[in-house]
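Q: Here's a chain of 518 amino acids. Please give me its 3D structure as tokens.
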Amino acid sequence: MAREFQRGHKAKISDLTAGTDLYVGVQISGPGLTFDISCFGLDANEQLSDDRYFVFFNQPKTPEDAMQLLGAQAGDTESFRVTLDRIPAHIHKLSFTATIDGAGQMSQIAPGCIRIVAGGEEVARYAFSGAEFSTERAVMLGDFYLKDVWRFAAVGQGFDGGLDALLKNFGGEVAEEESAAQQPQEAGAPGFAPPAQTAPAPSFGVPATPQTPQAPPLAPAFGAPNVPPQAPAPAPASAPGNPQMYTAPTVAGPMTPPAPAPAPAPAPFATQPPGPPAGPPGAPGQPFGGVQAPGPVPAEAGLRVVLTKYAEVAVGDRWTEQNPQQVRATLTKGQPILAKQGSMVAYQGDIDFAYKGSGLLGKLTGQLTGQGMSLMRCSGDGEVFLADEASRLFVIRLEGDQLYTSAHGVLAFDESLDTEIRRIEGAGLPGGGFFSMLFSGTGSVVVKTRGIPVVLPVGPATYVDGNAVIAWSAGAQAVTTTALRLRRSGYASSQSEAINLQFRGAPGNFVVVQPFEV
């Protein structure tokens, strides 16, 4: 029985089937609409750096036949063959898309789906309909993406613009119409078609269509149909100011707008706030990176373009940085998260919110430690959007690692993480900041800061205001001290700031400091 996916759901391909020779079928239709259904082979930066891996009506396969366009069959508007073990190493994502050729919008489409068939059996299906879209003319239906192993994600992300605009946003180039018109039309079968002979049904062939009582149709050969498909009329030129979308720095985000020149390398936190800050020394992936601020809106941009600039980022990982002040958690049953009460700003799907007292975290009580938290447990199937007074948010992924934080610096975390309260040695801190939280295990922590933080390497004499520290590496030892060489007036606030934290540790440790006092 096929596994039913909802928008935002993800799964390992190996959990769906042991096979690597897969059939991908797309069913999409609408009154008076014509569709171009394509597959983009993207690199690690989610760009179409090699246009030989753009599979569409005019280029039906890749050089090594890892991806092939098969045509309409078995009730599918378009279909593909994907052989995962043939995909070259520089391809990290396959994005299956549908665009409207000509006038129309995605809100007009009838119920459709994208499905995966392996060994003649349907193993996965993501159903969608026009009710999920509005004025979009293109939609990213689903992705195969490489994260240690190949995985499938049901995307369902709409996008204003046709095939040309979608191609440009993936970093591809659109051929001139004159060049396309000069290409000769072949009367016979195209060169990529197999010889004219009876071929056995492929092992990955699609099952019989359940709606018709007639005998199931035979699966076609791997090549394209004998009659060459007619190329649809060229898509109208894109309007000025192609819509842009945010990309999350920690996950494989969907589309980044083309830029006339490469962006300069980001400067450190203190010198270039809009760019992503440098990560802690020695830490992979720079977890405290930010999202680049959107560019100015062109004067000729209409309402639709303006709103699309801030559209929801396509599904990537379980945690996605929607923008610098908002994160999205994609939930599945059995994998809840804990978040600060009142931090939910929106959600989609079947989500349950339940109050969780600080007793869940053992000694984490306001009376004992001053680090009390009021948490809610979010569970179910869907997406939850979190924010907290426009604070900057950073998703830190732990894979067997440990991280210390202050409670006021935590917005949300996976319930699967182990949490513990650790006492900081030395004199007590103002406001009861005498304890810290230790996260360990596998999962993610969402850290929030007021303003753009700075990540300091821990040296032999690193002192931080106890009310401004947000997080630090587990290898750094924190002690409180009153042996200051600075006067109280040297602190950000002038009220009883005589105690701070001293950090010690081997090279490679770090401490995160926000430009704000709690």
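Q: Can you summarize the key feature?
A: Helices lie at 13-16, 163-169, 177-181, 303-308, 366-369.
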